[in-house]
Amino acid sequence: MVFARVRGTVVTTTNEDRIPGGRYLVVSLSSSDGTKEGASLVALDLVQADFGQLVLVSQGSSCRQTEYTKNTAVDAVIVGIVDTVHTETGVAPEVGAHAE
Fold first, then answer.
1. Which of 2, 42, 61, 97 is the most exposed place for a label (fewest CB within 10 A)?
2. Which residue ranges form the domains of the chain, and what is each CATH number?
């Protein structure tokens, strides 16, 4: 899993049949404190994440191991919303807060 920051939504007129009503979000890969950002990708949202939130994203074959995504063409899934991150230097401030 990787950290990512929600940056936008993807609107599609049709989806793969096995994912009815699937909600897709644009996320930017992020550091554990939510400050540094990298490449963007599209991820299926399973947790109702909101714009600016720091989330956990599962990628590749492991993201197809949920009942919702089993045997689908999904390559990235948002599986959690981060509230706090504890590291050897302490707690990252406002990790789960909405960022602009």
1. 61
2. 2-91 (2.40.50.220)
